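Lab notebook, bench 4. Continuing the backlog of folding jobs that were queued last week. Each job is logged with the same field layout so the records can be merged later without manual cleanup. Today's entry covers Chondroitin synthase, a 333-residue chain. Filled in by technician R.K.

JOB TYPE: sequence-to-structure
TARGET: Chondroitin synthase
LENGTH: 333
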Amino acid sequence: MTAPAVSVLMPCYNAARYLPAAAGSVLSQTLTDFEVVAVDDGSTDGTKALLDGYAAKDPRVRVISRPNTGIVGALNDGLEQCRAPLVARMDADDVCHPDRLRRQVAFLRDNPECVAVGTFAVLFGAGGRVLDLQGEVTAHKDIVARVRRGAGGALLHASAMFRQDALRAVGGYRKEFAWVEDLDLYLRLADHGTFANLPRYFYGYRKHPGAVCRIRRTEQTARKERALAEDFARSGRSRPPALSREDRYRPADPALARDRQIVGLLARGAPRRAVVSAAKGVLRTPLRRAAWDVLALVSCRRPPAPHKVADLLDGPQLALPLAIAPATVGGNR
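JOB STATUS: finished
OUTPUT FIELD FOLLOWS
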């Protein structure tokens, strides 16, 4: 059997409420040469039945069902089953733009030194309200500088596409760094190639009130410190000071800071002001495609139905409109 161009690795845990939107956004990609490796991590809410239904209808979907071990075990078991040279992460409660995979594949083809490429993201709440944007830096030097100061989110893990040979070269994910598995992975991958972010809002990341960063903060902080200490001991580099929360999310480009301010207006219930500000941004930099993304996002007055959550807006510049299933806590966060 010929290997696909991309393996989409999607761990799933009690994500039935959000899975139709996530799976629909993946199966609607403009790049069609991919497989979905969906790992059911011992779900009890009907996730497995949904996954089996997708697999019955689409031969690109392969389902792995196993007892619950948590995110790291699910990722490693799924990685073992990935057949493509490129592995794209996807969370079972998020959505992605239909052109996401095609753009990331093209970037990695044109940049053979790159081992991981992410995208900017729209952050939205469990109930669907747009909260913020994430996307501070695009270049390797800026990403790796933030990673080495503890900011694993400089390359949003769920949006990333990796070279599988690089993932295997570093041994995949390590169980002892669960909850900071992305940071630990990046610290080891940085010795094997470069990182990048596409400066487009191609991913929709759902934030939950019961996310790991809230309920496991103490353990997460301790494991982050251990991963950073191990990295600096291994490399011999002197350790820079940790980033403050403000600096961690401070965009390197003033245009990205303006994007966040515009979406902040929308989040605070001022959609008209958001649209006016976004339109001014497009007039200021008409060739900047992310500016069009933001205008399309804030102009979307009525989100599409949940099963059309990643449908494109009309127009030459495309954004990710978000609609949203009812709120429950799900997914491996």
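OBSERVATION: Confidence is low (pLDDT under 50) at residues 303-333.
SIGNED: R.K.
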